[in-house]
């Protein structure tokens, strides 16, 4: 579907004070939606003086059906449409699958900077999935159950431990898990393979942010992504994969905001 034929759903928090800074566009990962940014990150960055937006990739907004045939390139179209809606090129900040989408979109969107938060490694999901299956087979099974059954049972402690730190209260973690939904099978298939053929090394400011306690994509698996872009890699302490919802979200957001503040206006 051409990006010009659909209007993606977006959430916006206006900057609470005027600054000469570009807007921000957050791109969520698999199984989530724009809601994951609305909880903490959008109000936080609006308070730091940024016009903060989050896009719902097709099939992820509200109670709409899963876009089972949507590809990563379809999600890129959604991001490009959101950029046009914003009206001026934003800094793209993509998480996990959304980081791959952002890396494919940045040149066409003509964005000024790119932040990759716990991104899917450039070598694709196969290697990471194999390592997870070997080292933590019970977690591997739980994540696949999430794809098979939207609204996984809230008592899934294994899944909670896979994507959140132990500091996040179980009640909060389970509430977030209940909001997660199935992902497009085609998009997941697209992510299995090495991504370099579709991703251009960035010639704009870029930083790779890893999550210290990420069990899905441990920090050491993301060195190749930073090297591909000639970028710095920064570890966010104390958070797991779902860093924007984890107990240490504020410290993570502060580190990301400090990097954004360091960019030229």
Write a compact overview of the structure shown:
With 265 residues, the protein is an alpha/beta fold. The protein has eleven helices and seven strands. A seven-stranded mixed sheet has the order 1-3-2-4-5-6-7, with helices on both faces.
From the structure above, extract its key features.
11 helices, alpha/beta, 7 strands, Rossmann fold, single chain, seven-stranded mixed sheet, globular, 265 residues
Description:
With 265 residues, the chain is an alpha/beta fold. It has a single domain (3-124, 182-262), classed as Alpha/Beta hydrolase fold, catalytic domain (Rossmann fold), CATH 3.40.50.1820. Helices cover 40% and strands 13% of the residues. The protein is built from 11 helices and 7 strands. It has helices spanning 35-38, 41-47, 72-86, 97-109, 125-135, 137-148, 157-163, 170-179, 185-191, 223-229, 249-262; strands at 9-13, 24-27, 52-56, 91-95, 114-117, 206-211, 232-236. A 7-stranded mixed sheet has the order 1-3-2-4-5-6-7, with helices on both faces. Helix 3 (72-86) packs across helix 4, helix 5 (125-135) crosses helix 6 (137-148) and helix 6 (137-148) packs across helix 7. The longest helix has 15 residues, at 72-86.
């Amino acid at each position: 579907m051409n990006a010009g034929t659909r209007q993606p759903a977006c959430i916006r928090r206006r900057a609470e004070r005027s600054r000469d800074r570009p807007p921000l566009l957050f791109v969520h990962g698999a199984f989530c939606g724009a809601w994951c940014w609305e909880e903490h990150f959008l109000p936080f960055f609006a308070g730091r003086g940024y016009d903060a937006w989050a896009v719902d990739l097709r099939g992820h907004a509200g109670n709409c059906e899963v876009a089972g045939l949507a590809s990563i390139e379809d999600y890129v179209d959604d991001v490009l449409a959101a950029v046009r809606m914003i009206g001026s090129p934003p800094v793209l900040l993509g998480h996990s699958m959304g980081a791959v989408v952002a890396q494919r979109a940045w040149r066409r969107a003509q964005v000024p900077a790119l932040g990759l938060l716990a991104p899917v490694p450039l070598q694709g999901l196969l290697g990471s999935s194999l390592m997870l299956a070997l080292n933590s087979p019970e977690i591997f099974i739980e994540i696949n159950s999430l794809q098979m059954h939207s609204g996984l049972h809230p008592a899934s402690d294994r899944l909670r431990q896979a994507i959140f730190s132990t500091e996040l209260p179980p009640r909060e973690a389970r509430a977030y898990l209940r909001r997660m939904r199935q992902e497009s099978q085609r998009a997941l298939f697209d992510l299995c393979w090495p991504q370099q053929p579709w991703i251009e090394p960035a010639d704009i400011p870029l930083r790779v942010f890893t999550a210290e306690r990420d069990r899905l994509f441990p920090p050491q698996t993301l060195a190749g992504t930073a090297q591909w872009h000639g970028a710095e890699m920064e570890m966010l302490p104390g958070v797991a994969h779902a860093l924007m919802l984890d107990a240490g979200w504020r410290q993570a957001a502060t580190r990301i905001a400090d990097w954004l503040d360091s960019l030229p206006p």
